[in-house]
Amino acid sequence: MDDMRDIFKSYEIFADVFAYPNETLRSKIKNVQNHLEKYYNEEANMFFEFSEFASSIELKKWEEIYTRTFDVQALTTLDLGYVLFGDDYKRGELLVNLSKEHKKVNNECSSELADHLPNVLRLLGKLNDNDLLEDIISLLLKPALSKIALEFDSKHIEKKSKVYQKHHRVIIEKDEHYALIYRNAIDTLLLMLNKDFPGNGLDSTEDKNFTRQISSELEIEKLG
């Protein structure tokens, strides 16, 4: 796919994958599958299991899987700054800077924070600064998604499950077959990013406050 408009449209469409489940989301995910089959062969094959899951899973069960994955003492979170920095002040600075970028291009964040994955994915195609775009992808999206993917490993799951059971009287029943289905979506997204934006994209010497700040913070944290 050579046209950057098509590339950015891919991420705008893919943002729907991480919305809270509802009946209308099924058709949106089918649209994602069709888009991937048109532009991303390998990624379409990887995503197919999630697409099939979304088309047939009972809605209540889907809601439980989503909640167990991303909310309430969850396996992980979709707030990328929290994934990288936790409650550290660095996340606050990141949120301030990202919020400015969202407002500049009128990217609606709804009720979620500026670093929420769908908000960041929808921001990509609206940015006019290529250096900023590269830094958001290489210093925020890629390292955060890589960390999220690691949270689906068995040792992390076991640890999270113990914490969850300790602090919540009502335990959401796990679906053994689909409990980790969102790993499929995360891996597909990472594959897309690595194909569309190979390398780390840090060749620019232009001094920009937003990109310089994120770069220095991630270097200190030695993440990625």
Layout: helices, strands, pairs:
Blueprint: H1 4-14, H2 23-39, H3 41-56, H4 59-70, H5 80-85, H6 89-104, H7 117-124, H8 130-150, H9 154-167, H10 182-196, H11 209-221
For the largest beta-sheet, the strand count, sense and barrel status come to: none
Identify the CATH architecture.
Orthogonal Bundle
SSE ordering: HHHHHHHHHHH
Distance between the termini: 26 Å
Radius of gyration: 17 Å
- Helix share bin: 55-70%
CATH class: Mainly Alpha
- What sort of overall outline do the alpha carbons produce when their principal axes are compared? globular
Q: Enumerate the spans where pLDDT stays under 50 for 5 or more consecutive residues.
A: 167-172, 201-213, 217-224
What would you call the structural class?
A: mainly alpha
From the 3D structure, determine the CATH topology. Answer: TorD-like
Instruction: Give the strand content.
Output: under 5%
Q: How many helices?
A: 11
Q: Determine the mean pLDDT.
A: 83
Count structural domains.
1
Task: Describe the structure concisely for a colleague.
The protein is mainly alpha-helical and about 220 residues long. Helix content is about 65%, strand content about 0%. It is globular, with a radius of gyration of 17 Å.
Overview of the structural elements:
The chain has helices at 4-14, 23-39, 41-56, 59-70, 80-85, 89-104, 117-124, 130-150, 154-167, 182-196, 209-221. It has 11 helices and no strands. The protein has one domain: TorD-like, CATH 1.10.3480.
Structural key phrases:
11 helices, 224 residues, TorD-like, 0% strand, mainly alpha, single chain, globular, disordered C terminus
